[in-house]
Design brief:
Elements: E1 7-10, H1 22-36, E2 41-42, H2 44-51, H3 56-66, E3 69-74, H4 77-80, H5 83-98, E4 105-110, H6 120-123, E5 126-129, H7 135-144, H8 149-152, H9 155-167, H10 184-210, H11 215-235, H12 239-252, H13 257-270, H14 276-291, H15 296-335, H16 338-363
Parallel strand pairs: 1-2, 1-3, 3-4, 4-5
């Protein structure tokens, strides 16, 4: 029985001299990331070694046939257009267009080039810049949040989606941490990771003082390390600490829109508890949009935040009006004018709620 896959990774493994390409390094990082998320991934360097290269063509075709997603990885147009890589993504595109793979999608993970430098057929698909700190996370979210998750991701991920959908009424366009209890072994690994990151932060700070000529490179690495710390804190539910480290990353790399987007996500999630966080989320997404105005994910998330906030305001108006009506009714019992007092309570509560909502909306930052 042939193995089934969720994702097929297409990439050029070696150059004309037989050396390992940068594409293969990125592809391996992608493979490790997606498998840790519970997806079944076809990565030729692993699968062909296990199955044998003599069966190369058959194994590739079977993997393409069973996969619901193909991710083309490349650092140059030449590599993405090489014989085998082109065969893989072009075969997949043809199956999608012909209706054989009606629920399939293609993504591109690129580096050292622009979207306009991609092969023409790949430019039409969602592309992610591997240089961005959270490109893999974004890519996974696109897979996870596909229109028909019950058919398009593995059972492990389907369980995660079902859990998230039942745990909250509102759901953002990005994923948040899994709240499943961690085993002692997992907690130990997290602690080890924290200690490692703290040592790395200390090292980079020392390098900043001793190597001013490499300041830009060191700041980029330091920002990424703070971002990783922030993600760990977020997974543990420590949103305050996550925000502190994320703001440090933003201060080091103000032009990195991905950090601002993630900060907005944290504020948005906290908005369920404190309404003022919606304002912070919108501010950070507006900053992210200044850096990347064409990013459709940012626009969609921003609109969702505004919509959710309006729904919250409506709920609060109803609650205030209801409480006022009850208070008015009680007063009516005392003074013998139940109906009049109840009407006064409802109207008064509604006016208070409306004014509160109006003031709140006026204080919100507008989308640029």
């Amino acid at each position: 029985m042939e193995k089934k896959y969720d994702v097929f990774i297409s990439f050029k493994n070696s150059d004309s001299d037989g050396n390992k390409t940068k594409d293969s390094i990125i592809a391996e990082q992608l493979y490790n990331y997606l498998t840790e998320k519970g997806l079944s991934v076809f990565f030729s360097n692993v699968e062909l070694e296990f199955l044998g290269k003599a069966q190369y063509t058959r194994v590739i075709d079977n993997a393409l046939e069973s996969s619901q997603f193909l991710i083309a990885v490349g650092c140059s147009n030449e590599n993405l257009d090489s014989q085998w890589v082109r065969y893989e993504w072009e075969s997949f595109i043809n199956d999608v267009r012909s209706g054989i793979k009606s629920n399939a999608e293609i993504f591109v993970l690129y580096q050292d080039m622009t979207v306009n430098q991609l092969p023409r057929a790949l430019r039409q698909h969602q592309a992610f810049n591997a240089s961005e700190a959270i490109s893999l996370e974004k890519l996974f979210n696109f897979i996870k949040n596909s229109s028909d998750p019950s058919k398009r991701v593995s059972a492990v991920v389907r369980q995660d989606i079902a859990s998230e959908q039942t745990s909250a009424k509102l759901e953002s366009t990005i994923s948040f941490e899994d709240n499943n209890p961690k085993t002692p072994k997992q907690r130990d690994r997290e602690e080890d990771k924290f200690n490692e990151l703290k040592r790395t932060i200390k090292q980079y700070n020392e390098e900043l003082n001793s190597n001013p000529n490499d300041e830009k490179i060191i700041k980029t690495k330091l920002a990424l390390t703070y971002y990783e710390c922030s993600m760990l804190y977020k997974e543990q539910g420590e949103s305050d600490l996550a925000i502190i480290d994320l703001e440090k990353a933003i201060n080091l790399e103000p032009a990195n829109d991905s950090y601002r987007e993630y900060l907005a996500e944290i504020y948005y999630k906290r908005g369920y508890k404190e309404q003022k966080e919606y304002k912070n989320a919108i501010e950070d997404l507006n900053q992210a949009l200044k850096l990347d105005p064409a990013n459709s994910l940012y626009h969609k998330t921003l609109e969702k935040i505004k919509k959710d906030r309006k729904e919250l305001i409506i709920i609060l108006i109803v609650l205030v009006g209801g409480i006022s009506a009850v208070v008015g009714f009680i007063i009516g019992l005392v003074i013998g004018a139940k109906l009049i007092s109840a009407i006064i309570g409802i109207v008064g509560g509604s006016i208070i709620g409306f004014l509160w909502a109006l003031i709140g909306d006026r204080t919100l930052p507008k989308e640029n």
